[in-house]
Amino acid sequence: MQQSVSAQRNDEPNLLDSRGLCLLSLDGGGVRGLSTLYILKSIMDRLNDKRKTTGLLQVKPCEVFDLIGGTSTGGLIAIMLGRLEMDVDECIIGYTKLAEAVFSQKKSRLPFSLKGKVKAQFDSSKLEKAIRETIKGSGISETDWFNDGNERGCRTFVCTVDQNTESIVRLRSYTLSEEPNIPASICQAALATSAATTFFEPVHIGNRIFADGGLGANNPVDELEGEAANIWCSESGDLKPLVKCFLSIGTGNPGIKAFEESIFKFLGQTVVSIATETEETEKRFIAKWRKHFDENRYFRFNVDQGLQSIGLDEYKQQGAMESATERYLVNQAQKNRVRDCIKNLELKENKTEPSFAVSIEEYKILGFQQQTVMPKVKWVVPFEKNRCFTGRESELTPLEELLFTEGGPKKIAVIGLGGVGKTSLIIELVYRIREHHENCSIFWIPATNFENFQQAYLNICQQLQLPGWDEKNKDPKRLLQSYLSQTSAGRWLLVFDNADDISMWTGSQGADQVSRQLMDYLPTSQDGRIVFTSRDRKTAYDLVQRGHIVEVPELSEDVAIDLLQKYVPRHDLGKHEDDAKSLVKQLTYLPLAIVQAASYINKNDISLATYLTLLADQEEEVIDLLSEHFEDDSRYRDVKNPVAMTWLISFEQIRLRDPSAAQILSFIACVDSKNVPLSLLPPGLSRKKEIDAVGTLDAYSFIYKRQADLSFDVHRLVHLATRNWLRREKILLQWTETVVNRLDDVFPNHNHQNRSIWRTYLTHARYTLDSQLIDQDGKRRIDLAWKVANCLGSDGRWKEAETLLVQVMKFRKKDLGEEHPDTLTSMNNLAGLFKSQGKYEAAEPLYEETLRLSKKVLGEEHPQTLTSINNLASLFDSQGKYEAAEPFYKETLQLRKKVLGEEHPDTLGSMNNLAGLFESQGKYEAAEPLYEETLQLSKKVLGEEHPHTLTSMNNLASLFNSQGKYEAAEPLYEETLQLRKKVLGEEHPQTLTSMNNLASLFDSQGKYEAAEPLYEETLQLSKKVLGEEHPQTLTSMNNLASLFNSQGKYEAAEPLYKETLQLSKKVLGEEHPHTLTSMNNLASLFRSQGKYEAAELNCPRKDDSSL
C-alpha cells in the first residue's frame, strides 16, 4: 500500500514527509528487551543501507526520532538510545552486559518474606553499578542529570510509578513549562523505570519512592501520545495530523513462563495483568490510530511466537531471542511492514520544532492557493522502487545532471545488452528525480509493442484528466503531446522503455498505418526531457538524433556480488566468496542472469556451489537452467523473464532488419566466443555490407570489438542463446558444417611463417572439431583436423595433436586403405608425436609398420621410404640405441646419395644425422669431418644463409662445444645467431635455439654474467612465441635454473626447477626423459642444499635407464 499523507501537494514528499513527527514507543519485558533491539536494528540497518545508496550519512535513532519513550526495559533502552545517543549495535552490547551483570546471581529465591511482604530477588546495587558503568562507557559522567538543561533534537522520557499515589509519573530529559519536572540523574531515572516488583528494591528520588513503570504502562503508547501532544499541540491536543511515523515495539508475547515465579496470591494477579494490559493497549491503540495504520504511519512490531518460554531474568537465552525475532521478521507480512516503515522514515529530513503545528497549517493553506495556479505534478510509473537495486552510481549521477542541466540534451537514450539492467537503472533514476526534483512530473510508457504503447498513453491522459481522454475519436498520443508541449505543463520527464523496434517509430517495414507517425507524436518543451531505453544502438541514434547516448556496462565483480547477496539473503557470501565470484563470472556479471540464478537458488534451497555444477553441465542442460521462469517486480508481467529468452526478440528483429547480420551471428555461434577474426567470416558480402552487419551486432551489444577492429568477442550467454536459437530452428548442424568448410579453406599448413595465422584460427578450429553434431568422418572435417594436428605439433601441443592424428589415421585407413601414401604419412607423423612425448614403445612399431608398408607400396628406394628409415634411426638415436641407429643412418645416407644425389638437401640431412650420432657416441673424430663436409656442401648447394646451412653451422659449433673447443665454438655460434636473426627473424624458434646454445657455451666457460641475460631473453621470447608450456620453453626454463644452481643461487633456482618439473609432467608426461631429467635436477639441487629427504622424494626411480 502506498503511503498517503494528508497535507500533500503535487503528489510529492511535502512538509509532513520531511519534518513530521517521528515517535518511538518501547515496551517493558525484562531481558526480552533484546527482541525490541533486534527489531529496531533491522529497521535502522535497512534505513542506513538506503541512505548509503543515495550518498547520505548514516543515522542513529536519536537523529531520526523526535521523541522516544519507554517503560522498564523499554525505559532503559530509551535512555541509552535517546539520552546517551547510542546507535543500536552499541545499545545491544551495553544492554547484554547489563543483563549479565544483574541477573547472573539471585539474591533470594522467593519473591516475598516470611511475613508475606514483597522482597527483591536480585541485588539492586548490582543494577545501579551496571547502569553507572553503561553511562560512563558512553562518555558521560555517571552523576549527570537526566534533564541537564541542554536542548537536544531527540527528547526522551521514561515511565515509573509513584508508590504513594500508585500513579504513572514521567521522568524527562527536557522541560515542559506546564508539567511537573522531577530532578533526577540519568542513573536514578534508569533505576526508577526498571525497579520491577519482586526483582529490585524501589528507588528513592528526593523524598519520593518509585517502582517499575510496567505496573501501570508496560506498553507506553498512551503515555507517548500524551507527552507528544503536550510538546507539539498542547492547546488543540490534535496530534494525529502532525505525526509522520509512530513506531511501537514490544518485547514479545510473554505467555506464562515470564511470570511463573511471581504467581503468589495478589502478586501473581498483579504481574500477570501486565501482560493482559499490554495486549489490550495494543489492540485499542491500533483501533484508535487505524487511519495512520492503514496509511503506513503507525507501526506495531511484537514477536508473537518463540519468547513465551523465556523468563524476564533469563539473560542466557540471547540466542533464542535473536532466533525468534529473526523468524518473526522474515514473515512476509512483517517484511512488508518493515519495508513500509523504512519508506516512511527515509523521507525525514529535519527535527520537528514545537511550532510545527502552525507550520503545517500554513502549508495546507499555501498548498490550496497554489493548486489554482501551479500545473499538476503527476507520477505515472508502473514499478515500485527496487529495494535490491545495487551500484550504477557512475551512470545515475551523470544522467540526472544531464536531465537537469540548463541547455542539456532534450533526448537521451540508454542502451545496452538485453538483461544488463537498463530498465532497473531508469526506475532508480526516476525515483531519485522524484526525491530531488519535486516539481517534475514523470510519465512511463512501455514501448514493447504498439498495444502497450497506446494503453500507456490513454492511462496518462486519464490520470491528468485531459479534456477528451474518454472520447473514442480523440487520439491520446496527440492529447498528451499537446499538453506536454505547453509551458503550463511545467517540468516533465517522459520515459519510453524498450524502444527496440525502429519500425514502430518510423512506420518502415510494413508497420500499420496507425503507428506510422509515432516519431511525430513526441512532445517538445523547454522544460521537458525524454529518455529512451533500447537494446539497439542504431535505433537509439535514430530516436535521439542530436541527443545523448549512455551505454550501460556490465557490473563490476564487487557490485555483482552485492546484488547477488541482496537476492540470496540467507546465504552469507562472505563465507563462500570463491563460489560467489565464480558464479557472477559465469553469469557474465549480467544483472538479469544473477537475479534469475538467485530465484532458482532460493526456490530450490540449494547452495551456490550446487548451482555452479548445473552451469557446468552440457550445453542443452545450461539452456534449460537459464530458461527457468521467475518473478521479478521490476519487469513487465507480460514479458518472459528468463535470460535465455530475453534475446529472442532481438534475434527476430535482427533477422528481419539485417539478414546479413543474422547470418554472421549464426556463423559465429559455431566458433569460440572469444577473439573471432573478421577474416574468418564467410565470404560473399561486400565490404560495406560486412561493416553494416557487424555494426548491427555491435549495436545490440551482442559482440565487443577488439583493438583495430580486426576481431571481436561474442557475449558468452548470447553465444549460448544463439546456439539454442539455431537448434530450435533446426539449422545448427547446417551452420556448423558451413564453419568447418570455411575453416578448412583458410587454415594454413604448419610452416613457421604461418604460425601467427594458424594461432588466430586455432581456437575456433578446435571448438568446431569438438562438435558432435557433424559427421566425424566428413572429408572437410578430416582435412581440417590434419592441418590443425600438424600445427599443434609444431607448437609442442603434442597430446592435443595426437588425438586428432589418431582420428585422421583411422579415417585414412578406412577410406583410403592402409597402404595409401597419405595413410603412411599420417602414420609417420603420429609416430613422430609419440617420439616427441617420449612414448618410444608406441612410436617404434608404428615407424616399423610405416617402413614396411613404404617398402612394399613405394619401393625400397623411394624418397618417402628413405624418410621412414631415417625416422626409425632417429628414434633409436633418441633412445640411446646407437648400435641399432647407426646402420639405418648409413643405409639412408647411401641410398639418398644413389637416388637423390650427393648434394640433395635430404642427403645433406642424412650426413648431418650420422654426424650427430657419432657426436652422441663421443666419436668426435668421425663426426667432425662429416659436419664440416655437410656445412661446405650446404653453403654450396643451398647458400650461406639458407636455414639448413645455418643448422649445419650450429651443429658444428655444438661439436666444438662438446669437445671443449670453446674458442672455435663461440664465433660459429655467434655467426649462426646473427644470420638466423637476419634470415628467420629474432623470434623464430631456431633463432631462440641459437641464443640458448650461445648462453650454454658461456655457462660452460663459467661466464655466468654473459650467460644469464641471454638465458633470460631466450626464456622470455620462448614464452611469447611458443607458449609457456612448449617443450622448448621448458628447456629454456631448465637451463636458466641450472645456471642459478651453478652460481649457488639456490633460492632462484628452486622455483624454476619446480615449475619446469610441474609443467613437464603436465605436457610431456611423468615418464618422458625430459621429465625425468627435471626430477633429477631438482633432486640434485636439494642435495646441494642438504635437503636429503626432499632429494630422495624427487629422485627418479632407480630403474630409469634414461638417466
Model description:
By secondary structure, the protein is α/β, with parallel strands linked by helices. The protein folds into five domains: 21-258 and 273-358, 3-Layer(aba) Sandwich (Cytosolic phospholipase A2 catalytic domain); 379-507 and 519-551, Rossmann fold (3-Layer(aba) Sandwich), CATH 3.40.50; 573-626; 643-795, Arc Repressor Mutant, subunit A, CATH 1.10.10; 1019-1106, Serine Threonine Protein Phosphatase 5, Tetratricopeptide repeat (Alpha Horseshoe). 56% of the residues lie in helices and 8% in strands. The strands form three sheets. Strands 1, 2, 3, 4, 5, 6, 7 and 8 form an eight-stranded mixed beta sheet that branches. A six-stranded parallel beta sheet has the order 9-11-12-13-10-14, with helices on both faces. A three-stranded antiparallel beta sheet has the order 15-17-16. Helix 19 (502-506) links the parallel strand 12 (491-497) and strand 13. Helix 2 runs antiparallel to helix 5 (88-103). The radius of gyration is 42 Å and the shape is elongated.
